Amino acid sequence: MFLHLLTHLRNDSMAICRVYFHMHGILLLIVFFVSLLGGCAGFRQLEMPPLPENAPPSHELAAVPFFPQEAYQCGPAALAMALSSSGLPVIPGDLVDEVYTPSRKGSLQMAMIGATRRHGRLAYEITDLDSIFPEIAAGHPVVILQNLGLSWYPVWHYAVAVGYDATMGNVILRSGVTPRKLMPFGVFEKTWARSNYWGLLVLQPTQLPATAKEKTYLAAVLGLEKARQFQASISGYTTAITRWPQSFPARMGLGNSYYAIGDLKSSERAFRETIRLHPNAGSAYNNLAQVLLEQGRYHEALGAARKAVSLGGPLEARYEETLREIKSHIIR
Amino acid sequence: MHPFRRSAKFVSILLIVFLSLIYIPVQSVFAAMIGTKAVLVDEEMQYAREKVRAFLDREDVWTALTAQGIDPLEAKARLDSLSDAEIQQISDRIDQLPAGGGVLEAVAIIAIVLFLVLLILDMIGVTDVFTFINPPPKR
Predict the structure, then answer these.
(1) How far apart are CA A85 and CA A136, in angstroms?
(2) Residues near B79 by Cβ (< 8 Å), separated by ≥ 6?
(3) Res A239: pLDDT
């Protein structure tokens, strides 16, 4: 029962970040416990992960602006720094309504991602320790979620990692009310590990993360498409195609995004290009058929839809629906 | 009574016309496109299925399966009837295999094989396995 309560508390507080918590006596208690732990278990000094070959031993993105946070509002502050750094002039006050949940006294990770997308920026999630320094070296500040407390007494906090110094073993953060906080790597690693190394890159959709993985990147662009930021998703998919020219979902997404803004010509071109590279993709033929249908080119549409049905696959029922639809237009 | 009936008929015809006007264009515009998300999920599933299939082709896995009394060919045949979620689970486990061979890898392979065996047994009908469980007494 007690354990149950604890896990509940932990899941619940994923959302919360409290920075002015050190006024509470409880934190003193924790500090006491930590010092005890330090006494018996001993903290091993963690090494920094290897830097990419061409990365300098220390690097700092001094141009990232700083916004001091107000009580409990490290989420809006951290996101405002990242958005401004990506070329959008926003201040934390603009983001409070989008990000901050008053009842939880914090900001949910999903809200941070959603707000990023609503501003037409690509939200690329990081979930491992190895990506952060290559990203900083490539000029991308990283919004990170830390638990400054303990796993069973969490004190969640968003900060922006803007630099590192491998020789001194420090990570440089914009954190809370401190514009340039130097955190020893060991502490940084521990506090960040408690959020499973959750980090967020806020990028223009024409930018690629230094450590970009195809699936993660496409999921991020899909997020823009879902948020109906179609111009942004068009640039995102186009960027993905320059990096992964063979990517099937990227080309489908490009066609779908053009379709969503009503640019049927560009959409048609995207689906035809998809078919050229992936001649057995039923869904590309299906979408091409729909785009042709809406241009009134019924007979070309019929050909494409028939091809989709003949290729089959798990979505065959949908292709048949398209075919029926086209036939009904021809009979009419 | 009569005037009410007449107006009711009029209103219902009007409703039919308007409701179908609302419904038809929406259906014809959106029903047919395959969304990017469906494409991404589909691609991921195909990739996972290929990975599991390739895993079953490995010699050490083949040996481990045979040792568990499962015909590897039969196991492969049953892969197609596994749900997407189950395939994803197996594929995740394969991803977690320690690389480079050795004892650790062999142990991990057997763990995955056992998981596979359980899944396949499940499909054959687990009820036959637990024959020692007595059915509840009849009233």
Answers:
(1) 12
(2) B49, B52, B53, B56, B87
(3) 98
Tell me: pLDDT of B132 over 80: no
Cβ-based contacts under 8 A for chains A and B: 54
For the record, the structure tokens of A121 come out as: 């920026």
SS3 B137: coil
Write a three-state SS string for A277-290: HCCCCHHHHHHHHH
- Distance from the A249 Cα atom to the nearest Cα atom in chain B, whole angstroms: 6
User: CB-based burial of residue B133 (10 Å sphere; 0-12 exposed, 13-18 middle, 19+ buried)?
Assistant: exposed
* pLDDT for residue A3 is more than 90: no
Looking at chain A, the whole-number percentage of residues with pLDDT higher than 90 is: 73
For A110-159, write each residue's pLDDT tens digit: 999 999 999 999 999 999 999 999 999 999 999 999 999 888 888 899 99
Residue A112's nearest CA partner among A134, A138, A81, A85 is A81
B55, B38, B43: which is closest to B92 by C-alpha?
A: B55
- For the cut 90, the answer to whether the pLDDT of residue B9 exceeds it is no
Amino acid letter, residue A9:
L
The letter for the amino acid at A152 is W
Is the distance from CB of A94 to CB of A113 less than 8 angstroms?
no
Reported confidence tier of residue A62, pLDDT bands at 50, 70, 90: very high
Residues of B with Cβ-Cβ distance to A325 under 8 angstroms: 28, 31-32
Buried b (16+ CB within 10 A) or exposed e, B42-66: bbebeebbeebeebbeeeebeebbe
Chain A: closest CA distance from residue B15 (Å): 24
Query: Quick check: A225 and B38 CB within 8 A?
Result: no
Residue A144, phi-psi category: left (phi > 0), alpha (psi -120 to 50), beta (remainder): beta
Closest chain B C-alpha to A164 CA, distance in angstroms: 30
Q: Which of A248, A259, A290 sits opposite B39 (nearest CB)?
A: A248
